Structure formats: C-alpha cells, structure tokens
Amino acid sequence: MAKSITEVLGIKYPIIQGGMAWISDAKLAAAVSNAGGAGIISCGGRTTEYVREEIRKAKQLTDKPFGVNVMLMAPNKDEIVDVICEEKPAFVTLGAGNPVPYFAKLKEAGIKVIPVIPNVKLAKRVAAADADAMVAEGMEAGGHIGVLTTMALMTQVIPEIKDIPVVMAGGFGDGRGLAAAMLMGAGGVQMGTRFLVAEECSVHENMKQKLIEAVDTDTIVTGLTLGGAVRGIKNKFSTEFVQKENEGKTSKEELIRMATGTNKLAAVEGDVVNGMMQAGQSLTVLQKVEPVATIIEDIMKQARETLSAAATIKL
What we know:
The protein is α/β, with parallel strands linked by helices. Helices cover about 40% and strands about 15% of the residues.
C-alpha cells in the first residue's frame, strides 16, 4: 500500500480540506491544519495580491502544514504560481487543466505537488511526472466535476498507483467514508462541502442555512453542454439554467454569461436564489454549524469505530 498523506505532508489526520473558490481562505485553512488536517487556500477568482496576503495570514494563524489550490483555467495562473513559489506553503493542489508543466518550478521552490485527477490515464501521467500525491475526485463532489464516481475511481485508480498516496474526494462527509476509503487503499480523503458549515468558514450564512436544510437529492449538475459540469444546490438559478441547457435554444456564449459570477453571488453575497451554491452530494451530514476541530474529531472518532467494527465482519 502507498504511503498515507499524513506521512507526505506531516499532518496528524488523513484529511485534506477542499479548495473552494471564494470560500477557502486563510482562516478556514489554518483552522483545519490546527485541528490535525491539511487546510487549503483557494485561488479561484482571486488576484495575486490576495493569494500572497492569505498565505502570509495563514502562517500567522498556524505553524502546521497548509496548502494552496490553483485552478488552471484561471487567466492569472502563472502569476499565482510565481507568488506561491515565493511564499512557500507546504503544498499545492492543481486542477481543471494540465498540472505537469508546473511541477518542476514548484518542486524547485520546495513545495509538494498534489494534482487533482479525474481518471486512470491522468493518474498514471502525474505519477510518472513525480507528483508527491494526487487527489482522485469523483463526480459526487461539489463544483467542477468529472464523469466517474468516487467508487469507480477508487476501484480503478488506487491499484494502478503504487508509490504515492491517492487521496479520494467526492461525497466524503463523515468517518464512515474515511474508513471505507482507507480500507480500499486510499492515502486519505479530501472534504470540501463538510467544512462549509464550520464556524471558521466564511461562506455566507444564507448558504450555510440552505446546506443545513438540504436533503440528499438536493444537488443538480449545470454546464453539461458546455464541457465544464458544475455541481451545486438546486435553486431558481440552477434549475432554470439546466432547463435552458436542455431546451437547446440558448447559445453557449449566453449560458456562460448567465453563469459568470454566480458562485460569488451565493457564497459571498448570500443570494441563494440567483447564485450558484456549489456543494457535493453528501448533504444530510450537514446538520449544524460547529468548529472545525469538532468536525474533524467527530470524523476521526467515527472512522476508528467503523474500522474497529469492520474487523469483526465475517465473509
């Protein structure tokens, strides 16, 4: 079995916090790292100045390892990578594009590289390019998603990657999921949606309340016709958007214009009617707002209990 992400990053628990655009800031990242996981600052939609300030702020809030997520679709991705190399967080996750060209520069700066991958082909490619670990993200995740489920990825990716941790993402929200992933050979899990209801999470209170009220079938996937599927909570915007997509009467350019800025509208401004509330499918575990440390300790307690009970199963 490959090493755990705890060994690679020097963290206590095999939990990485997902990089969520407009949400994952220094405060949340530091809280997760201080609680034993690995927090992440998101660069999605942000300026280089913001990224630099948040990295420095996180260093003041924690002495534990934390990372930065780079969305490779961003027009300023190269400038952001330069800032990251100068500020030197412990690691970087890279998604929504080809991460390999950035490996050498980041590693030269002493930063561990953890690309986000959606299939076996890319998993093999980044492993061969000397990634330190990888995140295999299933379509149950919130935000930008691929076409394979988390179980399908675990079944097919983990056996192919021998020497580095495969951190699983997409639909993980409790200790049972963590235990299941570890039993299948994962090196840890990444959770994003679970931390949206943390006290330290800056997402607007309106969105937190909608998440707490949500039931298991309350997500919807937009953008399937645009080549960039995004999962979020059903509301006026998302259901009307999908209806227009399915009708086929609205141009691609108009659909993109309709979607632009809607993530920030929900997450920052609190418009949960006209904004896109990006979230994954594991929703019923989001029952109340509580500190990050409580969330992580509860996850770990349940994971240990689940693994202990698994040892008694007879097949």
